[in-house]
Write a structure and sequence with these properties.
CATH architecture: 2-Layer Sandwich
Number of strands: 5
Number of domains: 1
Structural class: alpha+beta
CATH class: Alpha Beta
Radius of gyration: 16 Å
Number of helices: 3
Strand order of the largest sheet: 1-5-4-3-2
């Protein structure tokens, strides 16, 4: 529901070089050589993050983040039971997405 994409240039050439950064992304769901997908569940939303690394023909390496923060069943239940004010609960995953974007943009890759 609340998704985003971020891409930053990096001097690192492999995803294993980012292991200290991956600790807070959640549980590793799938992994390939150039892509890792993490999933994390919170009380009111679920977070899914895909991290990939690509090197262009000019030799510059970029790390890409695709992320989504989706309200879970409890959020929808609260939203419907306490309509119309219950849908204010969706501010929480949106706020978390915004904080995640700030973290990615301020982290030095």
């Amino acid at each position: 529901m609340f998704t985003g994409f971020s891409s930053k240039e990096t001097s690192k050439i492999a995803l294993e070089d980012f292991n200290d950064f991956f600790n807070f992304l959640g549980i590793l769901e799938t992994e390939t050589q150039n892509q890792k997908t993490f999933k994390k569940s919170h009380t009111l939303y679920n977070q899914k993050t895909t991290v990939s690394i690509h090197t262009n023909p000019k030799g510059k390496t970029r790390v890409n983040f695709t992320y989504s923060f989706n309200p879970n069943f409890l959020s929808w239940l609260i939203g419907l039971c306490f309509f119309p004010f219950g849908f204010l609960i969706f501010i929480i995953p949106n706020k978390e997405k915004d904080e995640f974007e700030v973290l990615i943009n301020t982290y030095d890759f």
